[in-house]
Predict the 3D structure of the following.
Amino acid sequence: MAGARALIRALRRVKIQSGRSWKQILKALVLLVKRFLDNPQVSELLRFIFLGTIVETGRVAGAKMVSTASFKQGELSYEWVSAYIDHHKVWNHSRTFRVVARDAEKMANRDLAIGGGGDGYPDAVYEPSNSEPELFHWRGKHWITISKNETEGSTSLTLQVWSRNRSVLDEFVQESRTFYRSSPQPPPKQDYDYSQSLIVGHFNQADFSYDWVLDYLQSENVMADANEFTISTKQTDAGWNREDAKQLVRYVPSSNTKQRLRWRGHWMQVEFVVGYEDGNGRTSGGSINILLHSCDKAVLGQFIEAARVHYTNASISRVTVHLTDNYGSWARAVTKNRRAFSTLILPGGIKELILADAREFLASEEWYTFAGVPHRRGYLLYGEPGTGKSSTIHALAGELGLEIYFISLAAPGIDDYTLGRLIRDTPSRCILLIEDIDCAFPSREEDDDEPLLDAKGNVIPKEPIPPRSQVTLAGLLNVLDSVASEEGRLTFATTNHIEQLDPALIRPGRMDLKIQYGLATNEQLEQMFDRFYPFNEDSLPELGPSIGCYFSKTTGTRLSASALGALAKEFAVAIPSGRYSIAQLQGYLLGSKNDPEGALEGIGAWIEAQEKAKKEMDELKQRRRKEAALRRAAEAAAEREVAEALNGVNGHVHENGHVNGNGHVKKLGSEEGEASDS
Ligand SMILES: Nc1ncnc2c1ncn2[C@@H]1O[C@H](COP(=O)(O)OP(=O)(O)OP(=O)(O)O)[C@@H](O)[C@H]1O
């Protein structure tokens, strides 16, 4: 408007100054404009401006008609949209692909694979790559152009939704998300860090939750989808292949394989990171990483709780023993079949006493708190080897439903510091088992005798000397008294040499109940025979000898319960009481598993052989000791002779000042000697 007014004012001034009429002035003006437009450059410029205005107006109007969104790989939203458009076969008309070799069976859109006809060889699969925009007629009413861009390792999808209403894009994204969440097809394996959007849980092998999760995942058959395995024949790996738990070859997850499974409506990715093996064949440092397709932390909590409950239930029939690694951490757990308490053969009332004591202790936590007494209890089981100390602890753990945390004080890497850490890391209500506690104190005299030889000149093995421990008495006492030991923990220590233990270690408060395990009494021997040869009425004699059904060698008839009882009594009295361990006799009876009469018949000869071997060994030891004593006496006499001879010389040397103040003779040829000679 301002421009038009200025033009009118200018024309007025021209009219006044020139004295021409308005008609003449306008005519001149039209002529001027016409000349100007006749100039081709000017007209071209004007046309350009005109067209530009139209295009720009169209573009602005068009931009209001389309919603654009891009999705970058590495973001979960990319996976939603990608899975959704794969499902709708958007790329089927594309002409730009990358061809990869995959198993077409596992592809979301199998139309993009050139199948090999099930020949067991990978198929050629077309993966859409940098593409021209593809048109997708979504829900039959909205047009969406989708293009894929790959530049320098970064991939993205760009969507243009042709609608004036942005809510169409919202709905599309929402639908992709829902589709992805509820898809029966497992989500693709993720290599990206989704910790910003999803819950990620790391379960380290050193933590007990690792065992829960491992056990739980085994039961969920997580390996079903895997295509990378380590083949194992170890019994401890049983479970990853559930089809036949007894088969010898097992498929265990290889390092860093990622498996997907759906858990209570949530997809999760399980990454199994294999640890490293130490010199003793124990692995540590492994982990299980779980990427949970949820951002609700409560879901992770539920998962852990489910794993814990599953583990606890599964352990009811088994006893779990936790072992340490070479670095002083809890490394792995092994499970053993529970040993029935009734299979322990101990003199009257001992096992009942231990069980009742432990039960009473576990049930009286409140009392301990009330009385201000640390809630812990120590048991020392001592006595001859092979008399049932370890077996008692395993049976007790099964009976009380507790796990065993086993520490060998002689294990490499266990010192005062690591021992303290191990104890701190054990949960409350467990059995802490410290085996061969005497090896913590190197007071035991080393047997430095020369090896004993038998009649044939073979070396007779010595009684094994427990390896020395780096743990000190003070360190062990500290750990036993520490606050960390006050949480309802039963500490069991075993030893074959109670006489070598410091009284401070076994005083009440540290070791509250001390139980001696002796060699088998007649009562125990009878019980043992009964356990080996029980009578089972239900066993069918026609099937031949079996557990609970034995036959007489002389008559060929089945042995009755009373006949077996009589054999047991005879067996017990045939063996001198307190002479052999249960383990020794167990070894003997294993040779006549289905033959009680044979076991009784052979026991005399067995005892004879044992006694003979023992006598020979004692004689040999005695002879050797005598020889060693004689040899030492001869050596001492020879040393004395040399010393006396030297003393004679020293009488002379002394004058030259060569005997030191302590009466010790300086070594000839030593610096001092040489100096004085010169
Ligand atoms: N009292 C027992 N009752 C039942 N079985 C026993 C008994 N004593 C020994 N055994 C059997 O003998 C074997 C060794 O027993 P165990 O390891 O419990 O003995 P230990 O006293 O702990 O020996 P060590 O002192 O050498 O460790 C086991 O197979 C066990 O079944």
User: Anything to note?
Assistant: The CA atoms of residues 647 and 663 lie 10 Å apart. The radius of gyration is 45 Å. The pocket of adenosine-5'-triphosphate is lined by residues 344-346, 385-391, 494, 496, 517, 582-583, 586 (CB under 6 Å).
